């Protein structure tokens, strides 16, 4: 009798859902893109697992995700600045992120916490979900995609393809992406004329903080008030991820993947796509600054970021069967606190 191999969710942590590249082409009928908040992380995680770059995976927030292999071995890969722990028959061990690993039947993997940002991606070999309107992405508000349109919960079982091979070589990203603490770049408009001349200067000249109202739909910021010229509302108009809406109170809201497709607040600016992942990863309380660029410069930045992403993926390499990255050991600075054995301060006193 055959046994179905599954990945069971023991705990979703703060929040976890199944996402892919997004549900494109339906915004005109009110269906958001959904999809991952950070496409680079998705592409790296899937590349580490040997899957197509847009394949569905688990997106999780703020650590706490806890999974186990059931009915057979499961290969998974983690992308993100995560503290990862694997527990099996040989005990518990910490595992570097930015790599894949094979869990034997009954082995468990936890993402204890995220050292940087608040998003990690977990790719699973053999995860094959039905597409809804062209995507497997979970959009909870409308019950689309994923597992019955819901976020992942304890007890959720993800059935894996019977022909999935979990025993191939594991892979590692040799050099994770460098942290970028620079300003979040935006293009003014499309309704910047609905604001006072000082409003855009305040937006790009001051510091804002992420409030506790931050999720997959958007991020509400707190900082300098942005003054409207005339009414603080407009006839409902199209929005996109990255749109910066400003309600009457003057505090900006940046829309993300699950945001509505139209809204009645004027949009002072739009965050460029290349910086949306960085913005989405900011935790409540973190500070940020904006910088204005033109549309052409935004396109140039997008091309540069794409080239960097391709270079990162090209640097992924196979690990030896024992899973030890000898190159990292040889090139890392492993020696600390060296002393001179013959130095006067270390000679015997008698």
From TrEMBL:
Keywords: ATP-binding, Hydrolase, Lyase, Nucleotide-binding
Domain Carboxyltransferase as annotated: residue spans: 28-308
InterPro entries for the chain: CT_A_B, Cyclophilin-like_dom_sf, PxpC
Pfam families hit by this protein: CT_A_B
Keyword Nucleotide-binding appears in the UniProt entry: yes
SUPFAM superfamilies the UniProt entry points to: Cyclophilin-like
Keyword match Nucleotide-binding: yes
Molecular function per GO: ATP binding; hydrolase activity; lyase activity
UniProt-recorded name of the protein: Urea amidolyase-like protein
Source species of the chain: Thauera phenylacetica B4P
Source organism phylogeny: Bacteria, Pseudomonadati, Pseudomonadota, Betaproteobacteria, Rhodocyclales
């Amino acid at each position: 009798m055959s046994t179905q191999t599954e990945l069971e969710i023991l705990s979703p942590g703060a929040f976890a859902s199944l996402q892919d590249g997004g549900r494109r082409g339906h915004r005109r009928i009110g269906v958001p893109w959904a999809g991952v908040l950070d496409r680079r992380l998705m592409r790296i995680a899937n590349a580490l697992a040997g899957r197509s770059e847009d394949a569905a995976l688990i997106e999780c927030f703020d650590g706490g995700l806890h999974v186990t292999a059931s009915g057979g071995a499961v290969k998974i890969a983690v992308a993100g600045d995560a503290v990862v722990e694997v527990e099996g028959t040989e005990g518990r061990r910490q595992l570097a992120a930015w790599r894949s690993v094979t869990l034997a039947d009954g082995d468990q993997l936890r993402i204890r916490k995220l050292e940087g940002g608040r998003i990690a991606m977990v790719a699973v070999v053999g995860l094959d979900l039905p597409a809804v309107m062209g995507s497997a992405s979970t959009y909870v508000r409308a019950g689309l995609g994923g597992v019955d349109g819901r976020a992942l919960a304890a007890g959720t079982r993800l059935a894996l393809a019977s022909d999935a091979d979990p025993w191939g070589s594991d892979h590692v990203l040799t050099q994770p992406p460098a942290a970028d603490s620079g300003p979040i770049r935006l293009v003014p408009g499309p309704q910047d004329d609905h604001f006072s001349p000082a409003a855009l200067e305040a937006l790009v000249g001051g510091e804002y903080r992420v409030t506790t109202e931050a999720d997959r739909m958007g991020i509400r910021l707190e900082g300098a008030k942005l003054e409207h010229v005339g009414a603080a509302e407009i006839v409902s108009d199209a929005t996109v991820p990255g749109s910066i809406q400003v309600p009457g109170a003057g505090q900006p809201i940046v829309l993300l993947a699950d945001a509505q497709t139209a809204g009645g607040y004027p949009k002072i600016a739009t965050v460029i796509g290349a910086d949306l992942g960085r913005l989405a990863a900011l935790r409540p309380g973190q500070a940020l600054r904006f910088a204005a660029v033109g549309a052409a410069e935004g396109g140039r930045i997008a091309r540069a970021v794409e080239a960097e992403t391709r270079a990162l993926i090209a640097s992924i390499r196979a690990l030896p069967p024992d899973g030890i990255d000898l190159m990292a050991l040889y090139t890392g600075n492993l020696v600390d606190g060296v002393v001179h054995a013959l130095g006067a301060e270390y000679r015997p006193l008698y």
